[in-house]
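Hi L.,

You mentioned the student needs an example of a multi-chain input paired with its predicted structure. This one should do, with 1169 residues in total across all chains.
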Amino acid sequence: MRRRLARSEGPWAWLAAGSVALSLLMLGGLLLLLAVRGLGHFWPVSVTLVELEDGRLLAGQAVRELPLEHRAGRERLYFTGNRDLDGHVWHWLPVDSIVASERPAELVVLERRRHGAFIGRLVAVGESDALPSAQSREAAWARLEARLAELGGLRDEYDRLRRDVLRPLIRRLDARPDDTAARQALAEANARVRELQQAMDGQAALLESVDGRRLVQPLDEVLRAWQPNAMSLGEKAGAWARGVWRFLSEGPRDGNTAGGVWPAIFGTVLMVLLMSLLVTPFGVLAAVYLNEVAHQGRLTNLVRIAVRNLAGVPSIVYGVFGLGVFVYGIGGTLDDWFFSDALPSPTFGTGGLLWASLTLALLTLPVVIVATEEGLARIPVQQREGALALGATRLETLTRVVLPMAVPAMLTGVILAVARAAGEVAPLMLVGVAKLAPQIPVDGEFPFIHLDRKFMHLGYHIFDTAFHGNDVQAALPLVYATALLLVMVILVLNLTAIFLRHYFRSRHGVQPRP
Amino acid sequence: MRRKRSPMTLLSRFQPSASGSIIDFDPTASCFEIEGVSLAYGGKPALRDISLRVPRHRVTAFIGPSGCGKSTLLRLLNRLHDLNEEVSHSGRILLEGEDIHAPEVAVDELRRRVGMVFQVPNPFPMSIYENVAFGLRLQGGLTRRRMDDIVEWALQSAALWDEVKDRLRASAWSLSGGQQQRLVIARSLAVRPEVLLLDEPASALDPISTLKIEELIRSLKSQLTLILVTHNMQQAARVSDYTAFLQDGQLVEYAPTDTLFTNPSLRSTENYITGRMA
Amino acid sequence: MIEPPNLASAPRSPWRRRFDRLATGLIAAGGIGVIVAVMAIGAFLVVEVLPVLLAGRLDMERVRVALTPMAWGTLKAALWAMLFAVPLALGAAIHSALFMTQRLRSRMKPTLEMMEAMPGVVVGFVAGLVMAPWVERHLAGVLTLMLALPLGVLLAAGLWRRLPSGWRRGLSLARAGLWLVPWLLLLALVTFALAPWLEGLLFGGDLRVWLDRELGLDYSTRNAMIVGVAMGFAVMPSIYALAEDALSGVPSRLGEGAHALGATRWQTLWRVVLPAASPGIFAAVMIGTGRAVGETMIVLMASGNAALMSLSPFEGMRSMAAGIAVELPEAVPGSEAYVLLMLAALLLFLFTFLVNTLAEVVRSRLRRRYRWLGGAA
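Structure written out for the whole complex:
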């Protein structure tokens, strides 16, 4: 009996092991889901042409399959595009109603500025007023590709012109309407813009949906075109990589259902940078005071516990504080004093970059204080005494011996703070993110960083797109991709912090102890 | 300001008024004069009414069982207790005739004049060169060349130069324990202290390193005054010129080392010495 | 003998000392300033709320009507989250503190720390938009799974005992946290394959209809069960980390004493280690509760936000944190709604602050006890 007991640990021990396994499973499942859905979106999926029992023809990308609600069988969701022809872009089809499906190589997918994607056949490409009614498939496709490449160049120039020339000029004129040089330059720029617009106009494509309806599509509205069924694996991989790059480098379009997240990345990074600039010196200052300067007694211990506890106060409460004190309090006062001519529309009296960074700095201050304090407490007292015994003052001991040794701990704290801040959304809903911020809060105009502007944020972008979008189904892949991006950023930051902490501890062990 | 002495201290052989027959140095040649010093940690007495004179350019050893207060006394001499708010003390300590606790004394300057080496080697996490130059940089106003000279001189004085001259930029933590301790001594020497306090400098080292440190201590005598705290009788006997025996925070006996070890006047001293040396 | 170079000590000391005193003063002032700023949060909320309350400008009945559903929702969400998180976290903590090899443990802890770093908005998105509709379609399977997983683990334990000893050494209990993962995956697949058949057998084909008819339970897509799992996932790692620290900090002498008397590891744990670490575990649960109460995005995205007052796991709720996030940007400063939301924030602040202080006090007492017992806590 005793032997058996000693060998087996009983059911509870196994359940404990099971909970570790379940946790790992959930974590792995979540990461896998984000990775597969987030990265899979950019793969150019083949387009299937299906024929239904009733003779209808449909072309679309199969998205997923579910069992039918109230009877046996399954149904499949197709993304069919063509919002301008059908009014909607999704089709649920019972699987058993599909008579035949094939993947003809000539089907094209066009990504358009308006109405989303088009899926169908390309009939002809030419001048819009003299569009041929038939053309060979290869010729039409070659012409389309050539024209799209040309348009890409024109579009880039147009965007550059607007961003770097037109907008600053208009601002300059707003400030000093009698600036004739600026007026002159503006006229020239406008002339160039008109030229570009003319160059972009003029060509169109004749398209035909698989059920035979035709439409004339002006080419300046078309962003990209591809023939997924005719692409080789290598071409698809290339298209996938370009898709990922566009996601990272472009702004959102179509009510956040298409395009990329560049402004959100930029806003997140900028806010987190500003926050670190604020939180690092203050956090270190407070930690140094608590650990090195303050009289170590009951009161210091109480303060220490309180600071630790503030790390556990919900972030939304910090958001409330930021709204009440920074936005309404300080921001409102600033507006009254300096921006009264702009009232009642607020300048600093509304959420913005500065207030968001300040709020998050306050939120992460306890993290930095606690980490730095731990680092300071870990430094052996002999190091301090060694410096003092050489005639160093307290400040010199601090700046030349203690602080350099505590740098990795501070870095760890700041990185953990950044990781926390990057994922924090709730306080930002109160103090300063925008659904769509057309302008990045940094530009070539004085003072270059506009602390009063609203900004986009990756985390808020996820929330907003997933819950307030018009077409959640269409936005979902992008939300997955954004979530994956955010998680990757935060995981990398956390891993860096763990590595640093590890490195810091092992380095202290290196000093030989004879 | 003379205090009433406890009977124990009266029995100690060193008294300022005593004739030079037992203490063979001229009272004017004393570096530290400790007069009636008592000290308490948070109300608990650790040193009681200690008076003694430390001769200049000699090695004086403080010995005694652990907890007797020898390290406490040592740390009092460069005011390292200032950091601890629980410590209270009375009595006077004169360094070259000046009270080290006088308000006009700058504690950092005092600590420059009275260097200290600790039990565990504590080089800073910097290069060997930077460790030695640390104290010099605090003083400031030195050219690079001059700094190089002083670093070399300090390392030579600490008998470390030959071992490290090719890797002055290497991390001080890459040295062995004994080398680290000599580096710490070099670091202290670089700021030209008048006194060097050594708090069991060899207790964490192997026998060969210990031997080197002891040689070093003897050779440094010509430059400065050394005060050595040790729990190792042989070490005290080998390197020191004078030895003070402390017990329970009191000075029991203070005499030239030869006398104290061969012919202790008190039973308690003899017990301690023989008990350990047997 | 080398000649000592003459060190002409420049008398710059007065400057250095003055600078030292000045800088120390500045650090003290700055440090106190920062600490006061951090502490100002509580003060601000009190200042916003207290005068209005004291002046009696707020109708108490209105306060009650407005806040009760939100307080209810907050506690309900936290309750379901803790029901999911506490057993999972404690099980994981016990396993990794007492059964795992040191090597595996040093990898496992950072991995589960990663879990803590998952942003709430991502967890909320997956829970609200992916998991909720999926669970709604597979309700029977999910509920069966909750039973099947523990039973399946026990089945694995039973099978393990019958394995040849070579296999047993390979699939040791110390590594069970890893090799049970594919087993659980298999269990889940089997469960979902069998679930429709079970549903037909027991509940007449549709569990949701059956729930409504037999028990009168409404099922909403985003409900307390979803919130519980999602928020449990979010707070589980912090409970795990603290409980693990408490368990592994128990001085090994205690456990060894029991082992020497012939107790199994599990008996040792139950009789010796767990009682010794119980204050630490209590603190861990407290801190987890604090986090669950204050978590905003997960509740906001996965709860449906309807201000219902029921205990049913299949209905949604509205929490204080989510209410503040949604309503405060629209509330006019000084208006009644604004003050009410400030009051909600104050309650959240007080609750979490108190819970955390309690946990911290218990933990520091525990640390002292371990030190006294000679442990390495």
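You could point out the following to them. Chain C touches chain A through 105 residues (CB under 8 Å). Chain C has 14 helices and no strands.

Best wishes,
N.
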